[in-house]
Amino acid sequence: MLFGLALFVALAWSSHASLRELEAVTDARSRSRSGLLLAAEVMSALKDVETGQRGYVLTGDEHYLVPFETGTRSLDETFKALRRMLADRPQANLETLWTLIDRRVVLAESNIADRRAYAEEGSPWRQRLDEGRDTMDRIRARFAAIESMLRAEIEARDRSLEALRVRASIFNVLLPMSGVALILAAWSLLQRERRRRCSPRTPAWRTRSPSVLPSCSTRSARSRPSRTAWTAASRTSAGGSRARCMTSSGSSSPRSR
């Protein structure tokens, strides 16, 4: 019985631990997916910056500045969210990445300002186009490494989640079964104790816990007063009958004389 109770407690604790681990892995997987989405948003904002800047310096059309301004406005806030999401992953090397991003934005702003000031062929913005392209290539390589890292984390956590779900399913089956087994074992012990109490061969002094079940000896003790009273009444009746017989025989003796 004690072994079964210990087994039930161990299964309950293991099931609780599995659920907590499942929750932790699910939360970590969600954070990895959120980081992947934020990285894609930062990269999209950078593409808007590059596209707007390149379109403006090549054509001089102010309409190309709309995506540039939109990208620069959303870039800071989105990258801050990405930094918070990946704060526990130093391998992402976000500070170096932000240095490259900031450099790319500065180059884009300088190119736009020079395009407004110099439209001729030898203007400074044409000399900086290659530098901007190289910087953007380095940024893409950094983001590719971050995305690869996050996707690997998601795949690993997917495998962990599958294993935890299988283990939780096993515990969900074993825990109720062990509970039912404990209930049946307790019921069997109570029935055995009841039969032991009802057995006439069992002395009354061996009864250990009379408050658990009403024993047969208790019921017999309750019925003793009624049997004693019935025996006493029978003896009294028999005594009275003998007394009447003796009286009647005593009174008839003189007559026979």
Automatic annotation (TrEMBL):
InterPro entries from the UniProt entry: CHASE3
Positions of the UniProt region annotated as Disordered? 198-257
> Does the keyword Kinase feature in the UniProt annotation?
yes
Query: What GO MF terms are annotated?
Result: kinase activity
Top-level division of the source organism's lineage = Bacteria
Q: Which residues cross the membrane?
A: 170-190
Q: Where is the composition biased (Low complexity)?
A: 226-257
The signal peptide stretch is 1-17
Please state every residue range assigned to the domain named CHASE3: 37-158
Q: Which UniProt keywords apply?
A: Kinase, Membrane, Signal, Transferase, Transmembrane, Transmembrane helix
The protein in question is named Histidine kinase
